[in-house]
Each structure stands twice: as structure tokens, then as C-alpha cells.
């Protein structure tokens, strides 16, 4: 029987037809009538033959796949279907944040990448399929989604496996799940990760020049490459253990291209510079791990210019500095980043400065 006709440019439909024919041709009951129908399908469109030839190359035997690998494919397929069902029922939600309403979430996109059941069937029923097929199968994402929080907003996300993310203000990241690993690419900002344990599928966070690997734990990662004085990566562990490495080469998984690993336990943190060079392990109190979750940011002897830049991540302060001597003054304390009026009141008491009205806001000047 001929396969149904395809609409124009239906790449997914063509792939499904190719795989359907491929699977049918492996069965013992394949006969002359089947072969005639197959040849008619090949001749119906020039793309059919080239697509089928390409898939034959993909699935040609290089090394015999072990029986255990075939069993794993069956388990992975069931797992993928369960992930899809769970994630479709769990949309992300905005955390409570005074600076922006929940409806302000933008920049959120969603893409599901589940290979067709025909591909799974072709792999499972064809025990002679080789190593290339296995590698191709493992390399296909089963879930991909990007998340972004706006300035002054927090965002909470539950992932298909039960892991949870909490994004701080102005944070962008992308989640990609494969059959043998889970990856998050943190482009900018900071987030807390509560990772569901899975020894068979480690969880990797790729943040600039640094990679973090866990099995199951809760930890925070900060990466703000555009912020002067804070352009490196900071990792702090709340529960469990994480492995932090300096990644060589361009961004991407490339987990074999790593060097200088450090293992962190609960109550420890580490900083890396913009090139990924890791510092020494440091203790950190529980309340010092991602205090932004309680709408707090803390400074210890921090240059005023850097402190002001941190406030600006959460919203406009209306404050500027033009005097380098004032910018170099050191600020210590804990603040609510969304409470700009209190910041304006406290600055003249904490530092030898005064606030002077200028066009568009206030300038922090030296106290004369």
C-alpha cells in the first residue's frame, strides 16, 4: 500500500514515511507486492529516494548494538513520552516580586524535540543497527526550552523530571535534555537549581567558561559577564555536592574539554574569573546563598560603582556617579534591591556623600 501524499515542504512527514518503509522492509513478511509499492513510492518524488538513502546510511551496521543497548532504547522511549506528558501540564510561573507583575514575562519560548516513534521502532526492531544509530539516538534532544526573566522579576520553573529552577532578575538560560544527560546553558544572570537525582542522567550547567556537574542537589550559579567587577562565575551549594570545572573552547557541551575540577559540598562556594580560572573554596552561610530569593542583596566593602550597578540589575535607581573618588567609596550592608527610596535615604548616612538633583535623577557627589 502506498503511503499517503505529503503536503508541500513536510519534512517531518517525509521522515516518518521513510522510517515506516524502512521498518516494514526489515520484517519477514515483506513480499513482491510490498516491494512494488515501495518502488512506486520512491519514484513518486525525487526527494523520497535521497531521503531513504540517507537514512539507510544512518542505520547501516557499523558495530552490532548490544542487547542491553536495545533494552535501554525501549526504556528511554517510555521515559521521553512521560516527560512530554508531565511538562505539558506544568507551565512556568512568575515568583512574587514587587518590581514587576507576573504578566510581564516575555522572551519565553518553548520547543519540544521528540524524535518520531517510527525512529524508535526502526532502532528497536532492527537488532543489527550499528553504533552510529546508537550515537545518533543519544544525541537527539528530547526537551528544549528557553526561559527569561525581566528586569526586577523572578521566575520559577518546574522541569519535566521534577527539577526546579528559580531565576533572578534579568536572567536568560536554556534547558536541553538528552537521553543520557541534562544541560542548562546560563547565558546571563543568576538562578537556583534544585535538581532531581538521576545517576544515569547527570545535570550540567554551562555558564561562560565554567561547567558545573551534579547528580541531585540544590545550588546557585551567578554569571553576569557585562557587569564590571562581577563578570566571572559564582557557584554556591546549599545541599549535596557539585563538581565545578574550567571549560576550554567555545560554549557548548564539550564536557571532555575541561580542566581544574573542584568539588563543592553544602555550605561552600567558589568564584571563577572571566576566563574560568577557579579560586579557592570558601565557606558560605545558608542565608548567604542566593539571598535575592528573599529580596535581599548584600555588599561587603564593595566599590560604590559596583554596588550601584547591582541595584540597576533590578530596576532603575535614578542615581548616577561622575566623580571617580565617589565611585571608589566602599559600601557594606544588606538592602532590598527594589526599595530605591530607602537606598537614597541611607547613602548619605553610610558614606560621605550627598545627592544632588540633575537632569533625569540624582547624582551621588562628594560631601563638601
Task: Characterize this entry briefly.
The protein is 29% helix and 30% strand.
Write the layout of secondary structure elements.
Elements: H1 11-25, H2 32-44, H3 46-59, H4 67-88, E1 93-94, E2 109-111, H5 117-125, H6 131-139, E3 143-148, E4 155-158, E5 164-167, E6 172-177, E7 182-194, E8 203-207, E9 210-214, E10 218-223, E11 233-239, E12 241-247, E13 258-265, E14 268-272, E15 282-283, E16 297-303, H7 304-314, E17 319-320, H8 324-327, E18 330-335, H9 340-350, E19 353-358, E20 361-366
Parallel strand pairs: 7-8, 17-20
Antiparallel strand pairs: 1-4, 2-3, 3-6, 4-5, 5-7, 6-7, 7-10, 8-9, 9-12, 10-11, 11-14, 12-13, 14-15, 16-18, 19-20
Percent helix range: 25-40%
CATH A-level architecture of the largest domain? Sandwich
Low-confidence stretches: 1-9, 97-131, 250-257
- Strand percent estimate: 25-35%
CATH class of the largest domain equals Mainly Beta
What is the count of helical runs?
9
CATH topology of the largest domain: Jelly Rolls
Mean pLDDT: 79
Q: How many domains make up the 3D coordinates?
A: 3
By secondary-structure content and strand pairing, the structural class works out as alpha+beta
* Count of individual beta strands: 20
Give the biggest beta sheet.
15 strands, mixed
Write down the Rg: 27 Å
The oligomeric state of the chains shown is single chain
Shape: elongated
Alpha-carbon distance between the two ends: 91 Å
